[in-house]
Amino acid sequence: MAGAPDPVELVRRARAGEQLAVARLISMVENAGGRLREVSAALAPHTGRAHVVGLTGSPGVGKSTSTSALVTELRARGRRVGVLAVDPSSPFSGGALLGDRVRMGEHTGDDGVFIRSMATRGHLGGLSWATPQALRVLDAAGCDVILVETVGVGQSEVEVVGLADSTVVLLAPGMGDGVQAAKAGILEIGDVFVVNKADRDGARRTVRELRNMLHLRDAGPDDWRPPVLSTVAARAEGIDGLADTLDEHLTWSEKSGERDRRRRERVRREIEAIGMEQVRSRMEQLRGGAVLDALTGRVLAGRLDPWAAADELLERSG
Amino acid sequence: MAGAPDPVELVRRARAGEQLAVARLISMVENAGGRLREVSAALAPHTGRAHVVGLTGSPGVGKSTSTSALVTELRARGRRVGVLAVDPSSPFSGGALLGDRVRMGEHTGDDGVFIRSMATRGHLGGLSWATPQALRVLDAAGCDVILVETVGVGQSEVEVVGLADSTVVLLAPGMGDGVQAAKAGILEIGDVFVVNKADRDGARRTVRELRNMLHLRDAGPDDWRPPVLSTVAARAEGIDGLADTLDEHLTWSEKSGERDRRRRERVRREIEAIGMEQVRSRMEQLRGGAVLDALTGRVLAGRLDPWAAADELLERSG
């Protein structure tokens, strides 16, 4: 049990439902240590089955509550569920701002649920790099559905598009979210829209506004038309409807070829992101070393331009 | 005049104060076209003189107004001034949200001021890639001071640290900015703090809170202790004091070696960012091509893991 665990054995145990094996595999891919490649190779034959669902929206709309309620609903339907909560990390501490998802505590002890909170990495973009690796672990572990919850506005939402088979955009009434949604390009990425906290004032108006805006989207007769649902996640209201809608979207996207298209794009980006990461790490090994130091000195002195310096650097880091 | 301009000749004209030559050079480096390398080489011998000042803060604190007032003050002191306004770009349109800085209109016609509004690029991080190149143009054009105004919270502020000789953090009273500042790590990056809109309620309290927080920073006897200034930029109040303080910080940072240290780090990051960009662009050329397509297919089929795929991709894009 102690010592370095064998990746192939760990994958076998993860597929048998061992929580610890899943956690260990995710740690191994997160830390990008020496055995990451072995893990990756051991996972490969078992991936490609899970329904990947992205949940996104501004802070305060109730993403974690919704995720938790959806987990309960999916478990009641006999599905094995994975949850990846992607937190923005403080640029200085490198740590997650929100800490671990204690709210998910109600699911501990259920061995059909795997929950992992991830800090986004700095430079190369959080989701684009570590999350796909964690997704592969949950996928190989036999999860039927994987919920990827992203905090945040902007970039991370866009990245979800490339990751998820189905993207759920959450909003809450009275936050001026309609306008914000349009601004952030959220209308374009959602497959399903959910107005949560639907028992609050203004919920109907938010639903109406959203529907109006969505009607402006171009859509052919066979295209998916994103529905706008209402939920009160804290009381689990409307969550069964959300689960049904996600099933419908999956069916449509398989039939239409959209799922294939997205999965292909997802893998393409993943390969590219890994490639970039490898180059970055090779260059980082030159940090503080004599080569980069000398090049920097020559650029500072005006004897070399940074492009020529980068050429030399790449030559030596290859 | 027509046709492809010669970079060396353009640099000569930029140094002579020709606005059009400066604008043309920035476009050439921004578009990263074929002549970027020639431009970069032509600029190299003339760079390294300008005082690079980063101005940052949340939306609404009056960054553009402050920048404009500072430009006026610096011009009155006979300095040649460059301004780079870095806007967040919409992830979908690729365009700048705020458009060009019409507010800077009062400085048009003054040939000692060069103003450029830049959209941040997507993937590889805005400031880390295109802005240093534009900085080099303004530097080579003979600007004594270059103001880099960044909209935004989070990542872009952090990137400013790596760029600027002096970083000004702007705040406004009553926006709960004190707490926000601490959160975003803003306390750690500011060399000078400015509470703008100081004629508003709560300005004194914001100044006091900020000073208290700054006192908690570790500092040796020879370290720079970031002052907290008050301004009303719209009426140019306190802007002379800001200009004086920036001069003092420059003097200190030259004497202490801090400027050298930062410039060295700036160039290092620049070389690395260019290296990464080159690899990215080589990989992009493989997009849609047979190699990446085949690798993607093998990963989707579970016959190859993405790490092994990235290895093959890098081999073929080298």
Features:
homodimer, 2 domains, Rossmann fold, 318 residues, 13% strand, 7-stranded parallel beta sheet, 50% helix, alpha/beta
Overview of the structural elements:
The structure is a homodimer of 318-residue chains. Chain A is 50% helix and 13% strand. Chain A is built from 13 helices and seven strands. The first copy, chain A, has 318 residues and is α/β, with parallel strands linked by helices. In chain A, helix 9 links the parallel strand 6 (192-195) and strand 7 (228-230). Chain A has helices at residues 7-15, 19-30, 36-43, 63-76, 126-140, 155-163, 177-183, 186-189, 203-215, 239-256, 258-285, 290-300, 306-317, and strands at 51-57, 81-87, 113-119, 145-151, 166-171, 192-195, 228-230. Mean pLDDT of chain A is 81; it is low at 89-103 and 121-127. At the A-B interface, helix 3, helix 11, helix 12 and helix 13 of A face helix 3, helix 11, helix 12 and helix 13 of B.
